[in-house]
Write a structure and sequence with these properties.
- This protein is of the alpha+beta class and 321 residues long.
- The chain has a domain of 152 residues: Beta Barrel (OB fold (Dihydrolipoamide Acetyltransferase, E2P)).
- The strands form 2 sheets. A 5-stranded mixed β-barrel has the order 4-5-6-8-7. Strands 2-3 form a two-stranded antiparallel sheet.
- A hairpin with a 4-residue loop joins strand 4 and strand 5.
- The longest helix is centred in the middle third of the chain and has 33 residues.
- It is elongated.
- It starts with 23 loop residues before the first strand and ends with a helix.
- About 6% of the residues have low confidence.
- InterPro entries: NA-bd_OB-fold, Stn1_N.
- It is found in: Chromosome, Telomere.
- Keywords: Chromosome, Telomere.
- It comes from Gaeumannomyces tritici (strain R3-111a-1).
Length: 321
């Protein structure tokens, strides 16, 4: 169903400007056979008459055939073939509920069972899709592409069925001619300003949708990671308070510079290591593995003079003796 377009096919973000995309387009069955689908619109159930996008149609004609297929135990598919004398027939599909078999029981004449059977009969009688051959009907529905091994054709999924009188059928054909002359026979043309506005709006909507998706992904990743309180509560359940310490990270060894070592040595050994600078005894506990005190040049001279003075005193005492 690919036809070379005579006019430009606008992008999908311009379809809301089309007069046919949301309307029930009155068509002949031969017009439905002319609908085509360009590349890029597969599976969207949107078809084109010239360059007019069409999704919903209305046809009128005589039911010439009825076929029924079983889909499953509770659903059947009924295919109505409609002819409007335009040269081509169209298949219209209806999904119906399968008729339930009658259950034979001893309480067949009970009031509840009789009322239920009456309701089922009324529903079947009131079903608008129970059509017969020879009836003139108007069918509304959405277009659907049906593919087989040998052919591809358009079908109509029935949304609403209406029985037509002769006068209503004449009025319907007048509306078909009016739509064809005023809309479908002319190409759908958009102004360049309208086209640019639709493009900018589509780009803006796409950007906003991407921004909405990003916070959702971020919130999902954050929610997967438990908080510190939740981790502590989970670790303390059934393991005691000692299990909390397993959550603490191991201590990282700290690098100590030479200047920091000197500062620590001064704080550990105030004064000469025996007394405070104010004269009181030192209360700092010196560890066995403490770092030895670094002596300055002035301290070495003071200790050397003290040692020489002690030697002189010892020599004088020995000479006097």
């Amino acid at each position: 169903m690919t036809i070379t377009p005579a006019h430009e096919i606008y992008p999908q973000y311009c379809f809301h400007k089309s007069p046919t995309i949301t309307a029930w387009c009155r068509l002949r069955t031969s017009d439905i056979a002319k609908l085509w689908s360009p590349p890029g619109f597969e599976g969207q159930d949107v078809f084109f008459y010239n360059n007019h996008p069409i999704k919903w149609v209305r046809i009128a004609g005589v039911v010439v055939a009825v076929d029924e297929y079983t889909v499953n135990e509770s659903t059947i598919k009924r295919v109505y073939t409609v002819d409007d004398s335009s040269g081509i027939n169209v298949e219209c599909i209806a999904q119906l509920a399968a008729k339930q078999p009658k259950n034979i029981s001893l309480d067949a004449h009970s009031p509840d069972l009789v009322a239920q059977q009456r309701r089922q009969q009324q529903q079947q009688q009131q079903s608008p899709f129970d059509l017969d051959v020879g009836q003139v009907v108007e069918i509304r529905g959405g277009l659907k592409l049906y593919r087989t091994r040998y052919e591809t054709r358009l079908q109509i999924n029935i949304e609403k069925v209406k029985h037509l009188s002769t006068q209503h059928e004449v009025d319907f054909w007048k509306e078909v001619v009016k739509l064809h002359d005023e809309t479908l026979s002319r190409p759908w043309v958009l102004d360049e300003r309208v086209l640019r506005h639709c493009r900018r709006k589509a780009e803006k909507d796409e950007l906003q949708s991407k921004k909405k998706k990003r916070p959702e992904k971020a919130s999902d990743s954050v929610s997967k990671e438990p908080s510190t309180r939740e981790a502590v509560n989970k670790a303390s359940e059934g393991k005691g308070h000692g299990a909390i310490h397993h959550l603490r990270p191991p201590a990282v060894p700290q690098f100590v510079s030479g200047l920091e070592k000197k500062r620590r040595v001064k704080n550990t050994y105030p004064g000469d290591g025996l007394h405070h600078r104010h004269g009181g005894p030192s209360t700092v506990a010196v560890a066995d593995s403490a770092v030895p005190k670094l002596l300055t040049g002035l301290e070495r001279k003071r200790r050397q003079r003290k040692a020489e003075h002690g030697t002189n005193l010892q020599g004088r005492s020995m000479s006097r003796a």
